[in-house]
Design goal:
The chain has one domain: NE0471-like N-terminal domain (NE0471 N-terminal domain-like), CATH 3.30.2020.10. 16% of the residues lie in helices and 27% in strands. It is built from 3 helices and 7 strands; from the N terminus they run E-E-E-H-H-E-E-E-H-E. The strands form 2 sheets. The chain has a 4-stranded antiparallel beta sheet with strand order 1-2-3-7, covered by helices on one side. A 3-stranded antiparallel beta sheet has the order 4-5-6. The chain is globular, with a radius of gyration of 14 Å. It starts with 10 loop residues before the first strand and ends in a 9-residue tail after the last strand.
């Protein structure tokens, strides 16, 4: 029986994109795209991210991602809801 917790990979790097998506790099070597647009209406802390300069200030926090206004996302949500980038050989990059 497995006793250690099962955890998803964590974010090691993030690059904001002009269309309010985030290009993410995970600890397992995968990359993904996370769409932040649906989150921009979820309360004042996320609405503030409509300001492009604040949105672009996103950074990894050791587990997931966060912004200077204390907005952050659950690392499992970020991994599970990101669209994985697949290279031309058919494997995740």
């Amino acid at each position: 029986m497995r006793t250690e917790p099962i955890t998803n990979p964590r974010v090691v790097n993030v690059r904001p994109e002009p269309d309010y998506t985030l290009h993410l790099w995970f600890t397992n070597g995968e990359q993904g795209i996370f769409d932040m647009k649906p989150w921009l209406d979820r309360g004042p802390v996320f609405r503030a991210l409509r300001d492009v300069s604040l949105f672009n200030a996103v950074h990894p926090d050791g587990l997931s991602i966060e912004w200077p206004n204390d907005a952050s996302l659950c690392p499992d949500t970020v991994y599970e809801e990101s669209v994985k980038i697949v290279d031309k050989s058919g494997t995740s990059s």
